[in-house]
Automatic annotation (TrEMBL):
Domain of life: Eukaryota
Pfam families listed in its UniProt record: Integrase_H2C2 (PF17921)
Domain annotation Integrase zinc-binding: ranges: 48-100
GO MF entry, a single one: nucleic acid binding
Protein name in UniProt: Integrase zinc-binding domain-containing protein
InterPro entries per record: Integrase_H2C2, RNaseH_sf
Length: 200
């Protein structure tokens, strides 16, 4: 029985196959599978289609509308597919949270040490980085990097230390003072746990 001329699916020349409505099309002689020649014709507003879109979206690791639409098009022809996929993705909570605008906050005023002209490294921050992995002829060493940062110019001086013990840090500090002089103010970080331990 032919469809009414005003039907929204009449232009797709659909047909029934095993109680499934499939797209007609002109790919009968194309070297592709039957599902690709005649995909299932689905209504984009149906709840099953929304679940199918969500499942495909999650399976593709939350990719965008175009990728999900292309993946579904290989087996399904969804009426108003782009709009249906957009509705599902934009209402999906994990995607909404990942694309939500970040909060804005007024930054605090810079301290006087950051804005007062002075000799470089007059105010110095001390930090550590690492460990590094260095292989020598006998074993694998794990040295660290001591970072001395000028609070005014943001200049950086790097010293290599063999471990995080207090003695090695004091040696690095002595080398820094020998190069840049004794700073007026020092801003240390919380020392590593190994520096807080009492050495025997």
């Amino acid at each position: 029985m032919p469809l009414p001329a005003k039907s929204k699916i009449a232009r797709f020349n659909p047909f029934l196959q095993e109680n499934h409505l499939r797209l007609g099309g002109r790919l009968q002689f194309a070297p592709v599978t039957s599902e690709e020649k005649h995909p299932l014709l689905l209504d984009g507003s149906h709840h099953f289609v929304q679940l199918l879109i969500r499942h495909t979206h999650v399976r593709l690791h939350h990719l965008g509308v175009r990728i999900v639409f292309s993946e579904l098009r290989s087996n399904y022809w969804i009426l108003r597919g782009h709009e249906a996929i957009k509705r599902v993705i934009y209402k999906f909570l994990p995607c909404r949270l990942s694309k939500a605008p970040s909060g804005t906050q007024i930054e605090a005023l810079l301290p006087a040490d950051r804005v007062t002209p002075c000799i470089p490294f007059s105010t110095t921050g001390i930090d550590f980085s690492g460990p590094l992995y260095v292989r020598n002829s006998e074993s694998l060493d794990t040295p660290y990097i001591a970072l001395f940062t000028c609070s005014t110019t943001r200049a950086l001086l790097i010293e290599l230390v063999s471990d995080l013990t207090t003695d090695k840090f004091l040696m690095a500090l002595q080398r820094f003072v020998g190069i840049r002089g004794l700073p007026h103010t020092t801003i240390p970080i919380m020392p590593p746990p190994s520096m807080l331990q009492t050495e025997n």
